[in-house]
Design a protein that fits this description.
110 residues, Zincin-like, alpha+beta, globular, 4 helices, 45% helix
């Protein structure tokens, strides 16, 4: 898939999936984050680690959908897994790639 061109391309992808999943987005930011790939709040605010811009778009899609689904499903149970599959297909392989990346961010809080 290749890397992201810029922040605008990444943000457009977030809005694409937000529309598809029917999630309102109040604010969206890309910024350095020490120990997470993304976070969301009950006020419909989304933050993504700017390091994602250096990674393959497939991984970015995974993190985007993962975070957006937490607005609907707070845990990683069966419903969340079914929705991940519905939106990304074989998301588990993408998750494995993300876990094996050598980056500054540990896979601790997705």
């Amino acid at each position: 898939m290749g890397k992201w061109k810029d922040k605008a391309e990444f943000k457009n992808r977030v809005y694409h999936f937000a529309d598809k999943i029917d999630i309102p987005v109040n604010s969206l930011a890309l910024r350095p984050m020490r120990n997470k790939w993304a976070s969301c709040s009950t006020n419909d605010n989304l933050n993504f680690n700017s390091e994602l811009l250096e990674l393959d778009r497939e991984i970015g899609d995974y993190v985007i959908v993962h975070e957006l689904l937490h607005f609907r499903v707070p845990n990683h149970g069966k419903l969340w897994k079914n929705l991940m599959t519905a939106y990304l297909g074989d998301y588990e392989n993408i998750e494995k790639k993300l876990k094996t990346l050598k980056t500054k961010v540990d896979f601790i809080s997705l």
